[in-house]
Here is the input.
Amino acid sequence: MPASHPVCEDRRYIPKARDMRTNGSRKKWRPVKDQSKFEAQLDPGFAAEIAAEVPGGELLHQCIQCGTCSSACPVSAYMDLTPRRLIAMTRAGARDDVLHSVSPWVCTTCYACTVECPKRIPITDIMHALRRISLREKTYPRRFTTPVMTKAFVDMIHDRGRSTESWISMKLYLRTNPAQLIKNASIGQRLMRQGRLGLKRESIHERGKLRAMLKAVAS
Amino acid sequence: MTTTRYTYYPGCSAKGVGRGFTESLDAVFEHLGAGLDELEDWNCCGATAWPSVDENQAFALSARNLALAEDAAPDGGPVDVLASCTGCYRALLKTEHMLGERGPVAAKVGGALAAIGLDYEGRARVRHPIDILVNEIGLDAISQAVVRPLTGLKVACYYGCLLVRPFATFDDQYNPTSMDRLVEAVGAEPIEWPLKTRCCGGSCYCGGPVIGAMPEATMQLSYALLREATKRGADMIATICPLCQFNLEGFQDRMSRRFGRPLDVPAVFISQILGIAMGIDEGKLGIRRLLRWRLPEREPAAEREPAAVGAPAPAEGGGHARA
Here is the structure.
C-alpha cells in the first residue's frame, strides 16, 4: 500500500491556537498581555536558572533554532509559543513572557522533541521546570485545565497515595467547566456499569509514612 | 515450563479505567506458565503531574515502589518490576536511572526512604510486560500456546509515546516492532503504519478518564491515529497503555460527529488479543469491559477446535469500507 501522509486530510480541521479554550468554555485563552519589548525587561540570568533546575539544561545554549522540536511536537499548533520560540526566548531572558505562556501546560510530555533534538536538549524536562517555576511564582494560566488538574492530582496522591480517576475528573470539571460534567456523564455511566470507574476512593495503607517521605524530600 | 513469578506494578489506571489490562495480563501470564504478583501497598508513580510540582518528590514516590519491590524479593538478585501503564513505566524507569547515577538527588531520595524505614539497594529492574513476553517468555512459547489462530485479523499496533521515549530499552525508538511480532506469533497480521509512537493525547487528561483538559487537542491527536488505522484497513488497534486505550476507544462517536467521518475501530489491549488466540475465557480477559469489541468474520481458519470463545457481538462484515 502506498504510504500516504498521515495527517487529517481536510484542511478545515487544522487546529488553530484560538481553539485552545479553557476546557471548552467560552472564555478564550488570552496570550501574555504585556510582551517584553525592551531589553530592560529581559532577565539575562533566566537561562542559567533553567540550566540549574534541569540536569543537562545547560545544553540550552547550544540550540541551533532548527525547529525540529516544533515540528515533532504533536500539540505545537495549540501553543502560544512553540517549543523553538520558547527555547529562544528563554535563552534571551524573556522570563515574564515564558512563565506566563500556556505552552508548558499544553505540552503532553511525550518526549518527541527531546528524542528528535539534534543537540539533545532535554526540552520536555525544561517544560516541567517551567511548570514548576510558574506554579511557584503563580504565573500559570489560572483557568486553564492542566494546572488545575496537576494540583488536584498532587493533592489526592499526597492524601491517599493513589489516584481515583472519577474524583479527579469531577474535581477538574467543577473547578474549570461544570458543563463538561453533564456532557461527559453518559460515558462515565457506561464506564461505571463496566466496573472501570468507581466512586470508592483508592488508598494505600501507609499514608502517614508516604507523607513523611514526601516532606523529607521536598525541595 | 518453569514457573517464574514477576512483581507487578499496575498503577492507578490499570486498576481503574484500564482494569482489563491487568486482568488480561494476569490471565495470559498464568497461561504461559508465569505469574504476576501485585506489589504490596504500591503507591502512585506521580505520573506527569508530580514532576511539574516537585521533581524530587516525584522521584521519591517511584523510589518507594522500587524499594518495596526489593523488599518483596529478599534473595539478593535483581528484581524485575513489571509496569504495565507506559506512564508508570517511564516514571519508574527514570527513577531507576536517576538512583543508579547516585547523584545528590539520589542521596536525598535515599535519605527520605530511610526516614520511613525503607532501603533501596539498586536491584530493581523496571520492565514492561511486552519486553518480558517477547524477550523472556519468547515468541515460540506464545505461538505454541495458540489454539485459535487469528488468521486474517489486521491489527494496528500502537505503542504510544512513553514506551520508547525518552529511553529506548528493548525496542527501536522510531519503529518499535515487539508488539508486531507478538501479533504475528498469534497468526494475525500487523499493519504497517507510521503513527506507532505518535502521542494519542492521553496525557491531556492524565488522571481523569473522561476527556478533560484539552478536548480539542486530544480529539485531533486521537482522530489522526484512528483515521490512519482505518484507512490502512485495521480491524482493531492494539495498545499497551490504559490511557491510550481509553482515549482511543472512548470518544469515537464524538470524533465522528466532530470530524464528519465515521469511526468504528475497537481499541483493545495486546494481552486481550493474545488471550483470545490462546483460547482463554473472555471473562478473564476483561473483554466485557471494552466499549467496542468484535472479531471480524473471515473464513474460518481455526484447524484446532477453539475453546468456548464464540465471536461475540454481531460482526459488521469484516474490514472497513474506505470512507
